[in-house]
Design a protein that fits this description.
Layout: H1 5-33, H2 37-56, H3 62-85, E1 89-91, H4 103-119, H5 126-147, E2 151-153, H6 158-176
Antiparallel strand pairs: 1-2
Length: 188
């Protein structure tokens, strides 16, 4: 399919504008964010929960629980990018300047929280655990990050997060209970 030169020029100009904004964001990050208290807080939140989970995890269930955790990580990252790109919220004091999401939330806090909940009382009603997770995430964690100045909801209400968090937890619970995996290949 042949594109007109005008369309190509518009796309290229838009890419250049985005590049300039990213360079400005990196400059601001270097001048005001990196090594600030909230940056160190984010670094700690990126590492310490994984260390805690690694120490206290049920070793015989690690693969299964990590499977659910990686699902949460991918979904949280994808939804956070969408929310940021549609200006529903944004973050200040990012750990990594070119990542539009709050790295500690998507890569650590969400998956590790779900993995811990999956391990604690594994026979408890998953819907109850999912609702508690959704309420805690939406009405305690999000307001806390907003209060400290990291998370800025612009067109988003905390209540919107509850059903999303509940669904994420329930699906990760379902994934960790699966028993029918076919091997990629058979060992002889």
């Amino acid at each position: 399919m042949e594109y007109k030169e005008h369309e190509k020029k518009l796309i290229d100009e838009n890419v250049e504008q985005i590049h300039q904004l990213i360079m400005k964001k990196i400059e601001i990050w270097f001048d005001y964010v990196v090594f600030s208290d909230l940056w160190w807080f984010g670094v700690a939140l990126s590492i310490i929960p994984w260390m805690i989970w690694f120490k206290f995890r049920k070793k015989e269930s690690s693969d299964r629980i990590l499977y659910g955790g990686f699902f949460v990580l991918i979904i949280a990252l994808a939804l956070d990018i969408l929310g940021d790109q549609f200006s529903l919220w944004h973050y200040r004091f990012n750990v990594i300047p070119v990542v539009p999401t709050y790295f500690p939330w998507d890569i650590t806090l969400m998956p590790v929280s779900v993995m811990i909940l999956l391990q604690i009382k594994p026979d408890a009603n998953p819907l109850v655990k999912a609702i508690l997770f959704g309420i805690f995430s939406a009405y305690i964690a999000e307001p806390f990050f907003h209060w400290v100045g990291i998370y800025v909801p612009t067109k988003w209400k905390y209540t919107y997060s509850v059903p999303i968090q509940v669904a994420i937890y329930l699906y990760s619970h379902y994934l960790t209970r699966r028993k029918n995996f076919s091997p990629f290949f058979k060992w002889k």
